[in-house]
Amino acid sequence: MTDIETSIRPFERVARRLAARTALPSAPPSEPEFEFDIAIVGLGYVGLPTALDYFTAGARVLALDISAARRAAIAAGDVDLVPTDAARLPLALASDGFALSGEPADLSRAAAVVVCVPTPVDEHLMPDLSLLSAACETVVAHARADQLLMLTSTTYVGCTQDLLVAPLTEHGFVVGEDIHVAFSAERIDPGNTAVDHHRVPRVVGGATPSCEVRAERLLRSYADAVHRVHSLAAAEMTKLLENTFRAVNIALANEFADICRHLDLDVTTVIDAASTKPYGFMAFRPGPGVGGHCIPCDPHYLLWQLRSKRIEAPLITRAMNEIALRPGRVVDRVRDVLSETGAGLVGARVLVVGVAYKPNVADLRESPALEILAGLRSHGATIAYLDPLCPEVRLPDGSTMRSTDEPRSFAPDVVIVHTRHDVLDLGWLEHTPIVLDATYRGVDLPHRVRL
Question: Which end of the chain is more exposed for a tag (fewer CB within 10 A), N or C?
Fold first, then answer.
């Protein structure tokens, strides 16, 4: 038996169940030594859908999160999921093949361990690796022979080597022989119902060729397509390119929106027209800023690493600076619009509609709305917001606010339309003097002015 054949033995039960979906040859039949086929570490916007994907594919899943509050919310079904995942969750919770755990020692019971924890940036836009480092330390502490350990959290190039391969080697493991390590960045878009998770190709790189084979087998147990890049570093850099590409193009779209306003053009009309070209153009849309975990954070991991090597990336740096400044420009635009009416921002009543970072999700991570609300308040405005999906928010200064139930009774002087959820009825806006459309798509809004 070859080393590679030996390395994939723990996954034979899953492979036999899903033989019709895998293009790789099966290893000789044997029963796994583990109680679970896979453990998912971190059950947030990535980890929980990932756990449900593997469960649906037939794997025995250990879903682990150290937060008791998060586990309780999952057990109660009180979590933000797309409808298909919301329907799968109670089936998983009722099954013997899905275990919800808060005990890190349980990781030793799984043939594969996948880390899905956040990798944010701090207030200085520096990478915050505390959650990932802690998760990897826990995984290494409970690692056992014949496991596959895989990171999916976006991070710097070389992180998997630093946080998994090197510590495992120090613990006496031989990576690629008695334990396996891989990196495959998540590709989950919260709230997106147009593309099922399993239809999104996964990119994977392994620490060794046998690690790569074993990681591909795990991913193919639920994903329709897997692309191998033959190194951990290439897989890590792929994710950084994906999100840096988006960041640069969104910054360009925002700049074009400002240019079009000054030239009295509608930027949406221009983008729609350019989109008719069947090659060489990809539409990106302007807005009040960029939220979520990926675009505002991930390119900073690359820039941070490049600075340590004295390597410049001026285009990326400028794009990320512009993205960081965008919410402040929304505040400036409110002030300018008010000044055109002879009023000022001090004492003005400003209501923000929608504070989630994108429509139809209750996701506040890095939402520009939080900085916009804080900026308006710091300039003397009286602020409120309306968002039924986010009943309470915490602003950057630590203060909290609750969504208003009666926007008309707030009597706003200006309404900023930041995020348009499908559940929002905006008919009451006809009674608002000024509606600042930060989405650039609200052609149906009364009293509309463009950002």
Answer: N
Could you read off the pLDDT of 317-351 as tens digits, one per residue?
999 999 999 999 999 999 999 999 999 999 999 99
Q: What confidence tens digit (pLDDT) does each residue in 285-307 have? A: 999 999 988 889 999 999 999 99
Residue 74 identity: I
What is the token pair recorded at 97?
Answer: 């093949």
Question: Residue 133 phi/psi, 5° resolution?
Answer: -60, -45
pTM: 0.87
309: in domain? no
DSSP string, 200-269: S-EEEEESSHHHHHHHHHHHHTT-S-EEE-SSHHHHHHHHHHHHHHHHHHHHHHHHHHHHHHHTT--HHH
292 domain-assigned: no
Q: Which residues are catalytic?
A: 294
Choose the final residue of a domain: 230, 260, 295.
Answer: 230
Joined together, the tokens standing for residue 61 give 């899943």
Residue in 126, 179, 183 with CA at minimum distance from that of residue 153: 183
Percentage of the chain beyond pLDDT 90 is 85
